[in-house]
Amino acid sequence: MIPYGRQSISDEDVAAVVAVLWSDFLTQGPAVPRFEGEVARIVGAGHAVAVNSATSALHIACLALGLGTGDVLWTVPNTFVASANCGLYCGAAVDFVDIDPVTLNMSVSALTAKLVAAERAGRLPKVIVPVHFAGEPCDMAAIGALARRYGVRVIEDASHAIGARQGGRMVGDCAHSDVTVFSFHPVKIVTTAEGGMAVTQDAALAERMALFRSHGITRDPALMRGEVDGPWSYQQLELGYNYRMTDLQAALGLSQLSRLEAFIARRQELAARYDRLLAGLPVGRPHRDGANLSALHLYPVQVARRAEVFHALRGAGVGVNVHYHPVHLQPYYRALGFAVGQFPVAEGYYDRAITLPLHPMLTEAEQDHVVASLKAAL
Ligand SMILES: *Cc1c(COP(=O)(O)O)cnc(C)c1O
What we know:
Blueprint: H1 11-21, H2 31-43, E1 47-51, H3 54-64, E2 72-75, H4 82-89, E3 93-96, H5 108-120, E4 127-129, H6 140-150, E5 153-157, E6 165-166, E7 169-170, E8 179-183, E9 196-200, H7 203-213, E10 217-218, E11 235-236, H8 247-257, H9 260-278, E12 292-293, E13 299-302, H10 306-315, H11 331-334, H12 344-352, E14 353-356, H13 364-377
Parallel strand pairs: 2-3, 2-4, 4-5, 5-8
Antiparallel strand pairs: 1-9, 6-7, 6-12, 8-9, 10-11, 13-14
The protein binds pyridoxal-5'-phosphate.
């Protein structure tokens, strides 16, 4: 089966992980801050907090922004469940903003209308989570302007989009958001096996996220309260978690980062080749804005009779996938009161959506097989 996504591991990656295994620290050592520093440098963020997944990064970002019971978080239905679940973890309510039918990202007009209505109802969200779907950046200038106007905090879910650019800026510079989150799962752009990171320009937010990453415990005397017993003392200031990344993971991530541009360049080449090979077929190809550089995590197309096409492709050894089953239609969210018809653009897109294989290890021969199988299925 040709997978829809997979990691690319080099001899240098293996050597970097093995070197950590022979070193003094398997976790809480020097590789984690080095990895944080390198991601921060590449994306132009002031601070970075590495964790064991993007899901954890979303959670500590919400906690650091003070999201809690009685608050509301908005995200899009066309995403992985983690973008919404982070709100529920904090005891907040979750609601959704429909997507734009062209970009498949958060619709700025739907967001505007929903903010106007929410302000009238006295129920503005505390946090919104736009998702850079497939690696294509959302319109962050517009979303950031709306957030400032309504006093809403913004967490960019850039799980698909490390290395992506918007105009002259990198996704992750947080020019229009409070925090940006990346995932290092093996199907994403660069991997640490499991892993994630939250980046921000706000030192206080970074400090709070670091606290929530590790049990809410500090060893920094400057942060301690009351009497400090001695140099052995640490204090728990918040109810945090163990969301730490290991040094093995950070070393793999650091080594992978040296190929970030090459990975994206190869994804760009393969996507351009799909664009050419699919031209003229009854297939909706993904939109790409010429002013942006998409990280091209996914190559999602739209077809009629999606289920039949899906079965035919899987039967031909093509590991197609579907991104995404709208989150509000998951049984857990239906039980919270969501229903079919509430976010029609995301629902309509889902009915036609099928993700073709795209990753740096994909060969042109494999790609030709994908396209021939798709033609036969249509
Ligand atoms: C993969 C993904 C996540 C979760 O990432 P993990 O590192 O697996 O926790 C969150 N949001 C989106 C949009 C994703 O694609």
